[in-house]
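note to self: dont lose this again. the chain is below, predicted strucutre after it. 130 aa total, dont forget to put it in the shared folder this time
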Amino acid sequence: MDSLFSIWKVDRDEALRIAESTYKVHVHDFEELIVGVKGGIEHTINCELTLAEAPLVAFVAKGQPHKLTLKLVNDEFDMWVIRFKSEFIADTIFQHYQSFMQRPNIALESGTCFNRLGLLCSLIDAEMKN
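---
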């Protein structure tokens, strides 16, 4: 990854395209945060499989072996992928991410709070494009 930060939306069509590709366990040289508004994931981290349906947040730490399979739920899929280099977040704040190492997928309740998270991703995406 060349940039310090990137964000993009994965819709139904993109999820189907990704699902068709051969996808093996791999590692990244960046951190990855997935905000799931609709759809589901099969997430294998360190050989441990977790299934999660939106609303969800999933985190993959830099260098962590993982595999992610995207799943349509009710023929819908809407997720944001946020990738960033470790230096993007100050070390003191970054320590809070350590809790994701034990529990990388967090199912959330739908409603106003989670909807704002999706809106925030939309705003960040729009700003990054300008």
